[in-house]
Design brief:
447 residues; 21 helices; 68% helix; elongated
Amino acid sequence: MLKIIKSGQKTCHRLTRRTVQKRTFLSEAYRCEEAWKTRFETPLLQKCKPEDLFLTLNHKFMTAGKVSAVDVDIFANTIQTKDHLDELLLVLQNLRKSAETTNTLDSTHHAVIRYLLENDYTTELTNTLHDRLTYGIFPDHLSYNILMDTYIKQNDYASAAKVGVLPMLQEDVENPITNALSLYACHKYLEDPDTWQKPPEPIDDSKEEIRIRVAFLRNPFFDDHFDLTDPQDLVGKTLAFQGNALGGALGRSCQLRGLILYKKYKDALELVQQWLNGLEENIVYEEVLNLIEKHNENVTGEEATSEFKDLMSQMDMLKQKSLCKESLTEALENNVKCAVEKQHDIDVNEQIQKYAEWGKQRERVLNKQIQEINRQNKLEEINKLKKYLEEKEKLLTFFDNEEEIELEIEKKEAQEKAEMERILKMPRALTKLKRLEQQEEYVPPRI
């Protein structure tokens, strides 16, 4: 009987833990799925076939070297099935390579993210968001929140953290839900940091030494922001950035942990000294000091600088102060819940309005593009007609203007003669001219 009770307790504990792990903060209504699907009710998207549109877009880029931003937006909003991934990424790259990238519509970013998320392209999605130079996709607040909430629900904290660091890179703290989810995702990711590794350095396997002549050499530069690639640095800077914006004991705890992860020991030292002098109680969470101590076990002798040692001595003094005893994870969860309660309805109402505005904007930009194409076609027709009339006029008035025409011919002949004399003065000009004549006379053999 005792064995059965213990077995039941273990099963209950396992189920409870599984339920806690599958935590989600946002409701289904927050995703605005029904409002998002209404875009297919517009005549423009109903009559559009993604396969045909992709061929048109690809042909335009191959021939003219550019694609229209509104055409890319229509393509991104019409695709649904999983087999359009490569086409979508190629179209985004082509748009990014053209001047039209500055006209990218807001709905394009949202549609691309929705498509990749709905079709479970997690790796492709995070790579696309982090490779902004190639794809140029920047999420809005609703996209940030849906992505992080989805990955948190799936226990994929690495992907949630990859999304959570992006608002920090854009220095964006406007949306409370985004800020709270970023902190929570980064905190949960640090429980198992091996799930997101630093990308390996590219290895050059070529044996030949290739030398390229360049006008000048650019000195290597590291901006300590967009150039960050180490997950520990990105997560640390995010915790420091969002913690500073949050404030309070929870914000200070995240800020301190982030600065130490980010190896900004001098900044962390100044903060701790400031807190010790200005605060008496609830300075930081006691749990965060234990997490920092656990992380510092991996600090090597070379990394243990004098600033690091001074910081550790100040941390020992901080431990003797009045600290928060509550759970750090629960505090972060409550922070998310408060943000959701405050911002949920505001975000949903704003997003529904955006969907309607995006549809009108798409129609407006497309009509403007059609008008411009029609104008260019009319100008081309007018220029052709003018050229035709000029040639007709020359034929009809040839005998009246015969002397002027002969003078113009003589003038052109003189210019051609002067140009030929200039070319002949160049070194080895005759040899090159003979070679060109031989190339023109060459007739390829029939096979």
